[in-house]
Amino acid sequence: MVAFLVANELRQSLHASLDKGESRYVWINEILDPTGGPGYARRLIHPLLPGTEGTLLSTEHRDSSGRQPYKTELEGVLQGSGIFFDYRFPRSRGGPEEDKTTYAALYPPFQWIVASGVYMGDINNAALTAHADIMQEKSRLERWHLLLTLGACLLLFLAIGHALFRQSRTRQRQMRQRMGRLENELEQRGEDRLSMEAIAACLAREILAGKFEPDDNFPREMDLCKRFDASRNRLRNALAQLVGAGLLERTAGRGTLVRPMSEWQLLDPLMSDWISGLEGINPALMREIYAFRLSVEPYVSALAATKANAQDLARLERAFEGMVATANDEQQAAHSEFDVAFHEAIYRATHNLVWAQLGSLLRPSISQLIESSQQAAQQHDQAHHRASLERHRAVMEAIRLRQPDMARTCAERVLETAARDLGFGLDHPRLETPRFST
Q1: pLDDT exceeds cutoff 90 at 326
Q2: Ordered domains of the chain (ranges, CATH)
Q3: CA atoms within 13 Å, Cβ hemisphere of 433
Q4: Which of 116, 246, 260, 305 is most buried by a 10 A CB count?
């Protein structure tokens, strides 16, 4: 009775395992006659062939290969231990027989032979799959090994290249030092050559005057050395100043190019020196300087009206009186100097460190604009010059009376007059200056 109940429980479980799609299963044969022969056992549970459960088995049965699997199984389990044996059995009901290897063992309490097997084809497929996985992993490891080897070689080459590069740089530096010493010796012998600063100033002023367009190729070093009768080292130092000021760009393979005006460092002190000695400034650069003044000076004038002290007002008066005294064609240079001093005094009257220093740095640029404006204004009569002086006076009085809004308006009128003299339009962008309250 116990064996019957256990068999029913196992039958449900084993059938369910095969229903889940598992390729391996367990079957149970109950021994009826240990001596073998027809009817030696009854098929108790077989998930693959449930319709044959309860049928009698014979040790004389042979598979398609001629082997007697039931006889081999019975003899093996009766020896007291399990047995592995091969035979042929269909994979599915009604299908062809395939090679299969099985392990069977005896369960003595119920005289059951419990067995489970694996088809050789599944073993081969599993082996092939495992082999493919191993080969894929091997290939991956080989790729990593190759990458690591290449990386190590690359690092080695970089280390060697870096060492050679440093050695080359050291030799070049030593060569430049020797060339520098030779040049110094030549200079000490009294050869009459332009200084590096003079060469840089000459070349910079040619660019600032508009002789070269943006992205133009600059003359070659060899040609410039011949032009200035200068050594290559001295010329390179001069060009380095122009590169630092944003006027030139030196690119390997392209040579030396003139950079766009937007890249020029106009606040560089060297630029101020170069602009101060310039004759005929680039019109485009002049428009940029004017646009800056139109955007900034009205605000600076309004700020000066709130900050100026007695010394600032005295400085403004002296500059303005100088403008009045030199308002004639014979003293145009002196008049320009007083005009520049007038505007510089407004920057200083803000008592702001940045504005004051900015006014000093931009002095040459402002001077160029003022000189160009006055040269253009020479075609007008004296009434035009007096009107210009009155506009400057209005700015000074607004600052003296601490009227920031009026100072801003008067400064705009001064700059609008300059724009008309230079032939500029009045559509330049400007800062949104705040309204000051007194």
Answers
A1: no
A2: 2-124 (3.30.450.20), 199-276 (1.10.10.10), 283-422 (1.20.120.530)
A3: 23
A4: 305
